[in-house]
């Protein structure tokens, strides 16, 4: 059986190290997982004024989340928190009230930084947001990647073998977690 994973890259940068990390994680994931990016760059800023008539970009976003078996966030940390573009996308997905698209979706969080703590504070903030949205999260292992010269090649190839081994392990754990949550969500399961 295969599972569709919708993934968010929390950076709009054309040279994003988080996009490079997401690509590496996808390449190391079990074959059962099929990945589709859920783009965030074209969304307007969320306002409750849109709730009565969501714009097309936001409808597409909500449908992409709802059609995914699991969600993966790969994001930088901005000023010790979630980048605005990603938080905006999450806000769109959570509304209008009563139609939270993230409810019960198994989620994973990863991040890359040039700084020493590898997006730890952003991830902690994300966990609060996803808890409020009733989205189960893979708690362990955690993916805090510090990108240094030699982590990735110019073409995005992952050069760090121990990181590759760890990311492969993470994706196996994430796959098992998605399967567990989907089984728990199935009708008839207590
Ligand atoms: C950063 N950066 C950063 N890094 C970090 O570890 N903690 C932080 O709080 C911040 N804050 C921050 C704010 C803003 C506005 C920018 C632009 C950058 C540095 C960040 O880790 C670095 O720019 C990464 O390359 C961002 O990831 P992407 O965009 O390359 O995926």
TrEMBL record:
Residues 5-145 form the NADPH-dependent FMN reductase-like domain. Pfam families: FMN_red (PF03358). It comes from the Bacteria. GO terms for cellular component: cytosol. Coiled coil: none annotated. GO terms for molecular function: FMN binding; oxidoreductase activity. This is FMN reductase.
